[in-house]
Recover the amino acids of this structure.
């Protein structure tokens, strides 16, 4: 009897195992806090996109990368309005943390489970586009005259990869400089004349540090950091006038013309700032340049390099308009001007979507003037559409300065291995800043390491 | 021809000998599916160039394993060695000291025994994040306290190139010591009190008692704990990933971080798999030899 019971229990266990193995869709896990301190719901939660049974209601999956805390309040009303205006479409909206996106998006794409409309950033976008997981939106975009008229060509160019347009820009921001007028004033400087060049940064910085006692320039040289790499790309372009990467030949432009010499000058100038000027906080190897927004807000430094997205940290202050003690200006200029990198993230359509027309309808809805204005103003993104210029949400003075940066912005390296390129660029920069390599060794390391790992 | 009852007996004997295998079959199946298939995949990937989503691009033979002989990997091994040796030494020394203290009767011993386990039950990611806040060089608790006490003028960079490894090793020690304490306390409880009394009568007290009597009795537990901690230490990922991500400049890049970077930053799944296979072999051999030694010692 005992044996019979034991055998029955074993069979039950076996059947249960096989019965459970048929589920799909991946585990629903909350992600750990990443730099935006967000929780994430996975892209594949909720109902899968249902095919049209009776010819009526369909479900589209929509995914935003970032913080659930930040984006649910922005997009829930937009989604609700869309569903009201389009009775035949339900939208299953979710948010995924940035740190999850690096791996999870590609796994979703490979299993043809990428949401119909997905927010894409460059780090993921180029790779997904290269592997054929994103729909080329160029034909759709070029067939829509109104849409074409509303987008600055420079943004479309920055979102173009391998001759295709794989996402519609929706989150745009360039590196700029944020500064505190009150600290400039305390140091005896004109608060309305912020530094415009790197020489100004050093001069102002020394005076501010001396007179106020706070490290004037919040800057770090953290290795293996995309933010550090973004800074290097901006610095390079401000000295040479060209982007650091040539997408056609998939190589650096450092060896062209006088670029290497100019790049050396830029790096040596930064070395002086980091090691000799005394104007940056201690222990620069622990931070990247974008980790000082809170310090600026707390009056622990006077100037930082960051993008429009830093504005979220001091939104309360910025909303004071002309009375705000925090203001923005363009990225410090080098000999070739102020040519900071511009981040152009946006909405993409999955190649595997079963409802391309509806997905395109949703995508266009997300980037129309009203919804894009809500997205931009509430999250702190640039008013990128031509139709958004002059809107009251963007009337504060800092918007004009940040938008001005777009005129001379350059794209990040347009390559599907941008993560690897950024890793080596940031490591080379940090190695030189920390005195582990000479400037020539750092540049050679950058070039050789990337060349060795290019596919 | 065999008598009917003998055939029947042989059949019953056959069924009886097959029955245990039937009972363990579901468990073996689970292990094969959950462990075996991914392991086979890993071995397969290690001989190929594979995309991040597992698509085989081409066979590359042993070239992924060639990386294991590179200077870069040697440096990673060196850092892993430092991490393991100092981490385990710290855990054992501090764990042993605290175990000896907590083994003595004292007021509040129960509370203290519960309190020392707290680091172990706190999730790794939270622990690492917490210590990041403590050691932060801009606004960290420790720097603020040291500055307030006038002991330092400028913040100490606990996550700088020269100090990051020591810092993460400290976090590892803090996290892993409770395991040693629990193992040692249990083992110490099992030592008969008559042995201690007899040792005292023979003049073996204090340090002499510890080295000559207690330690040999604790050796099997120490060895088993060591095997477990060795495996955990080599494969620890979250503490370092959250605090330094292997930086700055690779100062804290141990094997587990290297596997992650190869797979998810450089998208080189083949090389990542080769490193993972190597790690598995090393840990398995180390565990095997230590266990064999333990069993010989027991004999």
């Amino acid at each position: 009897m005992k044996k019979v019971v034991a055998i029955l229990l074993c069979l039950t266990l076996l059947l249960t195992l096989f019965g459970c193995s048929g589920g799909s869709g991946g585990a629903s896990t909350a992600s750990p806090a990443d730099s935006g301190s967000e929780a994430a719901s996975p892209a594949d939660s909720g109902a899968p996109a249902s095919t049209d049974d009776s010819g009526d209601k369909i479900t589209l999956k929509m995914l935003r990368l970032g913080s659930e805390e930040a984006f649910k309040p922005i997009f829930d009303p937009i989604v609700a309005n869309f569903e009201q205006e389009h009775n035949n479409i339900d939208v299953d909206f979710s948010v995924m943390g940035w740190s999850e996106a690096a791996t999870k998006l590609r796994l979703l794409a490979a299993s043809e489970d990428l949401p119909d409309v997905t927010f894409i950033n460059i780090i993921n976008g180029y790779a997904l586009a290269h592997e054929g997981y994103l729909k080329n939106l160029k034909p759709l975009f070029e067939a829509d005259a109104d849409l074409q008229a509303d987008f600055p060509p420079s943004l479309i160019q920055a979102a173009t990869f391998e001759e295709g347009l794989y996402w519609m820009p929706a989150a745009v921001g360039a590196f700029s400089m944020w500064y505190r007028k009150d600290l400039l004033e305390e140091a005896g400087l004109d608060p309305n004349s912020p530094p415009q060049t790197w020489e100004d940064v050093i001069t102002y910085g020394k005076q501010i540090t001396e007179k106020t006692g706070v490290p004037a320039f919040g800057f770090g040289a953290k290795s293996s950091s995309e933010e550090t790499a973004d800074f290097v790309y901006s610095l390079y372009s401000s000295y040479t006038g060209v982007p650091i990467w040539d997408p056609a030949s998939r190589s650096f432009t450092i060896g062209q013309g006088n670029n290497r010499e100019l790049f050396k000058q830029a790096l040596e100038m930064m070395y002086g700032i980091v090691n000799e000027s005394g104007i940056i906080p201690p222990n620069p190897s622990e931070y990247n340049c974008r980790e000082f927004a809170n310090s600026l807000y707390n009056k622990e430094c006077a100037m930082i390099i960051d993008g429009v997205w830093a504005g979220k940290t001091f939104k309360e202050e910025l909303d004071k308009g002309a009375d705000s003690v925090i203001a923005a200006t363009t990225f410090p200029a080098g000999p070739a001007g102020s040519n900071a990198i511009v981040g152009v993230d946006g909405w993409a359509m999955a190649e595997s979507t079963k409802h391309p027309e509806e997905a395109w309808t949703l995508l266009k809805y997300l980037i129309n003037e009203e919804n894009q204005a809500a997205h931009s103003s509430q999250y702190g993104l640039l008013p990128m559409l031509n139709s958004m210029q002059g809107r009251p949400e963007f009337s504060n003075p800092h918007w004009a300065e940040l938008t001005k940066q777009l005129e001379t912005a350059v794209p990040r390296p347009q390559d599907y291995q941008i993560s690897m390129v950024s890793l080596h660029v940031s490591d080379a920069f940090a190695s030189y800043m920390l005195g582990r390599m000479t400037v020539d060794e750092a540049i050679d390391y950058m070039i050789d390491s990337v060349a060795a790992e290019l596919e | 021809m065999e008598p009917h009852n003998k055939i029947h007996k042989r059949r019953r004997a056959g069924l009886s000998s097959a029955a245990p295998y039937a009972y363990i079959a579901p468990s073996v199946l689970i292990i094969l599916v959950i462990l075996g298939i991914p392991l086979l995949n890993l071995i397969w990937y290690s001989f190929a160039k594979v995309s991040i989503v597992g698509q085989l691009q081409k066979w590359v033979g042993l070239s992924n394993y060639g990386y294991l002989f590179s200077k870069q990997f040697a440096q990673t091994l060196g850092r892993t060695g430092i991490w393991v040796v100092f981490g385990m030494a710290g855990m054992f020394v501090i764990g042993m000291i605290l175990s000896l203290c907590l083994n003595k009767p004292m007021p509040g011993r129960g509370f203290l025994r519960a309190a020392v386990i707290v680091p172990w039950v706190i999730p790794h990611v939270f622990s690492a994040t917490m210590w990041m806040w403590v050691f932060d060089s801009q606004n960290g608790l420790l720097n603020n306290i040291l500055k307030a006490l006038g002991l330092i003028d400028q913040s100490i960079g606990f996550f700088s190139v020269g100090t990051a490894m020591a810092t993460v090793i400290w976090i590892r020690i803090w996290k892993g010591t409770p395991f040693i304490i629990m193992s040692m306390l249990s083992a110490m409880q099992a030592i008969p009190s008559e042995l201690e009394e007899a040792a005292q009568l023979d003049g073996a007290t204090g340090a002499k008692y510890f080295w000559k009597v207690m330690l040999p009795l604790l050796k099997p537990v120490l060895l088993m704990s060591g095997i477990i901690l060795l495996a955990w230490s080599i494969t620890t990922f979250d503490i370092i990933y959250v605090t330094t991500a292997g930086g700055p400049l690779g100062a804290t890049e141990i094997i587990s971080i290297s596997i992650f970077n190869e797979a998810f930053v450089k998208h080189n799944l083949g090389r990542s798999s080769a490193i993972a296979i190597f790690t598995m072999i090393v840990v398995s051999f180390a565990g095997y030899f230590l266990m064999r030694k333990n069993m010989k010692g027991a004999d």
About this structure: Chain B touches chain A through 35 residues (CB under 8 Å). The first helix of chain B runs from residue 4 to 45. DSSP finds 13 helices and two strands in chain B. The two ends of chain B are 49 Å apart (CA to CA).
